[in-house]
Design brief:
This protein is mostly beta strands. Helices cover 11% and strands 41% of the residues. It folds into 5 domains: 92 residues, Immunoglobulin-like; 92 residues, Immunoglobulin-like, CATH 2.60.40; 92 residues, Immunoglobulins (Immunoglobulin-like), CATH 2.60.40.10; 92 residues, Sandwich (Immunoglobulin-like); 186 residues, no CATH class.
Length: 619
């Protein structure tokens, strides 16, 4: 019976408790999340949260706690944002730039208060804020200027100061004055300013973010003397010169007189003559026409206003007045009988006469026609042609210049006339004729040698079989492909170098060219890069196409005669021309020069002595 009573009592307690549990399950603290912080600036940020569950009861309060420390709900500031459900935002203002802040959203209902997760953000570092202060303590030559750093932008001001100058936007073209560091007002005094000048000023401040500038202001100093400069003297001749000045600022008062002082002594204001040149600002000039040659003159511009007389800097100039001189002399167009002199003359701006004296000795004996050079600029090039010279002859020459102030005679120099263009004929031992042409200081055959005897009458062995040719270490000649009729008069004979080495291969008085002879030829016609085209017969009668750029400018008439190899093989006709020189290169090889159908060059190299090549004689 006791057990039954206890059980009934327990049931009674449970029935009493259950209604109370139902009431608490119907109301619990709300669910909330902290929104991401956005719209962050140097002094503000947008914060907020979102009610995700009202907990079964009305949201009576919501908002955020924020602080510069963690756990802002404990140590920070509460920012309410109304009531009710949904998303809410508020803006935090008046923050400090570059500072870290902590934020946590909250929500309250009848069951209690809930918090979102804690988040943080850092305000941006801003540019400084600076203003340019008004100019004070202004005089004609000084002014007090400065500025005020009203915000450091959240970071230390490392430098502050001002830019100033005489043109707008002085931070680009003006001067900089540093006035310390830190926030607040600062100032400096400018000295040495010009009277009646407008100056421009702008303050600046710098932090880690960058440099900010205040407003640009301007101020003007009091009027003073006019600003005048002495202009450079120009149009200088032995008797005249143009001189003047420029007034860039009138000093704040009208310029009533301006001009120049000039004379033969320094300080022309005291010792010279005054030349008045009107009134007003700007440039002014005049020509002085009573000067003397070879004299130094001094000049100084002046300007006058109510404040007084101001002067430009003193300048000096010298009228032309010295004998002429020859800066450079060279000749061109040298032929067997003519020459052109190119004379770079400094007449010193005086009429000058020029004569070239010349002759076969240093006593000269002949002279060119007199050239009267008018008044010209320095370094005028005068050409003088002389004809009637003898070919291949040394001449002395000198240049004589004369003007009103003196005579110049150049040093003795020499030139030698050439053989270029001179033609002739030479005969070998068997009386075969060869046309010749002068090129520079050399005379060359215009065709390949076809002699079958040395100049002493000794026969040169003719070797036709390849089997014999390949074994030769003695003199021999052949015809290309053993065809004397087709090649003799056109391409000449092909000789091995042993025939060249005999020394009597060319007609008496002539020789097989040495490497030095070939080099002289090449240099005279313009260098190895163009010598081939200058010496080759043009067209395709004696060369394969394209026979690049050939001109035969000097009449050398090189043909593509080919060669016979050391093994006896004939090849490269109309492809290349090959000519022996007298120089041995080694035991097996000797030097030769070569021109190809498809190059403008002339090549110098060496080849096996057994090779059959053409020969051109020279003297």
């Amino acid at each position: 019976m006791k057990t039954i009573y206890i059980s009934l009592f327990a049931l009674f307690l449970i029935s009493a408790i259950l209604p109370s549990c139902d009431r608490e399950e119907n109301s619990f603290p709300p669910g909330i999340i902290t929104a991401s912080v956005d719209e962050i600036t140097g002094t503000s940020a947008r914060v907020g949260g979102k009610i995700i569950d009202n907990g079964g009861a009305e949201i009576t309060d919501r908002g955020v706690y924020w602080s510069t420390s963690a756990d802002p709900e404990s140590s920070g500031t509460k920012l309410q944002s109304g009531s009710g459900e949904g998303t809410f935002y508020e803006t935090l203002a008046g923050l400090t730039s570059g500072r870290k802040y902590y934020v946590k959203a909250y929500a309250v209902n009848t069951a209690g208060i809930s918090y979102g997760e804690e988040t943080f953000f850092t305000t941006q570092i801003s540019m400084p804020e600076v203003t340019t202060s008004a100019v004070s303590e202004l005089t004609s030559t000084t002014a007090k200027i400065g500025g005020n750093v009203i915000s450091d932008g959240g970071f230390e001001i490392t430098e502050r100061g001002i830019y100033w100058g005489i043109e707008p936007n002085p931070r680009l073209k003006g001067s900089k004055v540093v006035a310390g560091s830190g926030s607040g007002e600062f100032s400096t005094t400018l000295t040495g300013l010009s009277r009646d000048y407008t100056y421009y000023v702008v303050a600046y401040a710098t932090n880690i973010k960058g440099t900010s500038y205040g407003n640009e202001i301007s101020f003007s100093t009091e009027p003073g003397l006019a600003t005048v400069v002495t202009s450079a003297v120009f149009n200088i001749t032995p008797s005249t010169a143009t001189a003047g000045g420029n007034i860039s600022a009138n000093g704040g008062a009208e310029v009533t007189d301006r001009g120049i002082f000039w004379g033969r002594s320094a300080n022309p204001v005291s010792t010279g003559m005054k030349l008045t040149l009107g009134t007003g600002s700007g440039s002014f000039a005049a020509t002085i026409d009573t000067l003397k040659p070879a004299v130094t003159y001094y000049i100084r511009a002046y300007a006058e206003n109510t404040a007084g007389i101001s002067y430009g800097e003193e300048k000096s100039f010298k009228t032309p007045g010295k004998p002429p001189k020859l800066d450079k002399a060279y000749y061109s167009d040298l032929t067997p009988h003519d020459i052109t002199f190119n004379l770079q003359v400094d007449t010193c701006i005086l009429v000058t006469s020029l004569v070239v004296e010349y002759g076969t000795t240093s006593s000269y004996g002949s002279s060119s026609a007199t050239v009267n050079i008018p008044v010209t600029k320095a370094d005028t090039v005068i050409t003088v042609d002389i004809s009637g010279l003898s070919q291949l002859t040394y001449y002395h020459y000198r240049v004589r210049l004369e003007n009103d102030l003196g005579i110049f005679i150049s040093d003795d120099k020499e030139f030698r006339t050439v053989l270029t263009g001179i033609t002739g004929t030479v005969y070998d031992y068997e009386n075969n004729p060869y046309e010749t042409i002068g090129i520079g200081y050399q005379e060359w055959m215009t065709g390949n040698l076809r002699a079958v005897r040395y100049n002493d009458g000794t026969k040169i062995p003719l070797v036709r079989p390849d089997s014999v040719w390949v074994k030769l270490t003695t003199a021999a000649y052949c015809w290309y492909e053993n065809d004397s009729i087709g090649n003799c008069n056109t391409y000449g004979a092909l000789y091995n170098w042993y025939a060249v080495h005999n020394g009597n291969l060319c007609p008496s008085g002539w020789r097989v060219p040495s490497n030095e002879d070939v080099t002289k030829l090449v240099n005279y016609v313009g260098g190895a890069g163009t010598a081939g085209k200058m010496l080759k017969e043009p067209g395709n009668n004696f060369w394969n196409s394209p026979n690049v750029d050939s001109t035969d400018f000097y009449g050398f008439s090189a043909y593509g005669g080919g060669k016979r190899s050391e093994s006896g093989i004939d090849d490269f006709k109309k492809v290349e021309g090959n000519w022996w020189t007298s120089d041995e290169y080694s035991t097996l090889n000797a030097s030769f020069f070569n021109i190809l159908f498809n190059y403008s060059n002339l090549f110098q190299a060496y080849y096996n002595k057994k090779t059959g090549m053409s020969v051109r004689c020279v003297r």
